[in-house]
Amino acid sequence: MSFFSGKTVLVTGGCGTVGRELVRQLLEHDLCEIRVIDTNESEVFFIEQELLQHQRQNPSSKTRSLCQIGDIRDGEMLNRIFAGVDIVLHTAALKHVILCERAPFDAVQTNVLGVRNIIEAALNNDVERVIFTSSDKAVNPTNVMGTSKLMGERLITAANSLRLQGRTIFSSTRFGNVLGSRGSVIPIFARQIQQGGPVTLTDNRMTRFIMTLEESCRLVLSAAEKARGGEVFVTKMPVIRIADLADVMIDELSSHFGYEPRQITTTEIGAKPGEKLYEELMSNEETRRTIELEEMFAVLPAFRSVYEEISYEYDDIVSQNVEDAYISSPDNSMSREELDEYCRRNGLLKSWLPSPAVIPMNPAPDRETGRRAA
Fold this sequence. Notes:
With about 375 residues, this protein is an alpha/beta fold.
């Protein structure tokens, strides 16, 4: 019996990259019901068909499914669909940095007020726990998107003081770049290589935390099980130089698109406004209240006295003391060889390889001449 067995789990933004993978992994557990809401009408239809197909292929599964068009800005809708839900995995958000800068009020409506709606619906329905998926951009934010995600984290942590005699546990997970997801750098580089280059780098010194989609979602589910209330779980992730990723992708993909690797050049175009040379997953201030676990860190609430007495005991504690801020740095980044192996092992570039042309081994004869094609 897994932690999720027999429970009803709702995934907001379930048609997004992370949400869809969470749904896929949840199907491996013996759920009572899985519910999905998203604003993308077409994708809601498609994921509903996938869940129906899964049920047909696994007739012994008793997991029911409910897919619905829904916006987290609509508090009344959330209050209805949260009825009977045990666990909420909240992934719905506006996540594009530049688009949030252009539409800051929309970012607040979704990423801040939407979180408030989630909290209220969870409390009204006595949901067991809510896990909010945050971003590395919430640490010392330089843009509207990161600031709104930080506010979402703060609301989720503070919500633990609102539950009174209820059972709801609110916690967050924070991770970096999910390689291969929509909006990540891999699709951008792949398209540039396909077109013959150049591959554009904002700054050759730039480093980032990375993880695969499967890893990120597995750790979200793990955090849901570990949550005690108010923590921000920070996943441990490898670090890469973006320039190294560009080189690895050029070496791996260029020949498949008809180019020699030396023909594909890279060019620096300058950092975007507000873009950091490195990413932070945990600040210096947060290290003073952080517990290190095997696969993640647990950043405990700053205002512990505001909440009821919560015991932050975990089965996989590595250390009760964390001294260094968790930032991406060239000093702890993967080598190019390690990055190449990481991409191969996780199949990160496989979807960008062109399908080989299928040539019939014994083509049919031409109807007029009776001859077989060359």
